[in-house]
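# step 3/5: fold
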Amino acid sequence: MNKVHELTKLYADAFLNFVPNPASISDAFRKSAEFGEKMSAVSLKAAQGSVEITNKWTAETFEQLGEVAAAKEEVADYAKAAGEFASRSVEAATGHLSGLAEVAKNAQIESAEAFLAAGK
C-alpha cells in the first residue's frame, strides 16, 4: 500500500460498498436541526440576559457620574462625591457580576441538558 493508486482504490471500494439509508440520513438531519435550534435558543437567551445587565449597569454608572460631575460648593465635596462614586461602583459591580455569573450558569445548565437530550 505504498502507492497512491492502491490507496485510492481502497477508498473507492469502501465507498462503493457503502449504501446510505435515506431514512437514517433524514433522521440525523432532523436531530441535528433540532439540536442547533436548542443551542441557538440558549445562546440568544444568554446574550439577551447579558445585554440587559450590562445596559442597566451602564445607565446606573452614567447617572452616578452625573452626580460626580455636578458643581459643588466646597472643594472637599468633589473628593467626597468621587469617594461615594467609587464605593457605589464597587457595590454595583458585585451585584451585576453576580447577575452575569447567573446568566452564564443557566446557559451552561441548559447546554448540558441539550447535549444529554441529543444523546438519547
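# step 4/5: annotate
The mean pLDDT is 90.
# step 5/5: archive (pending)
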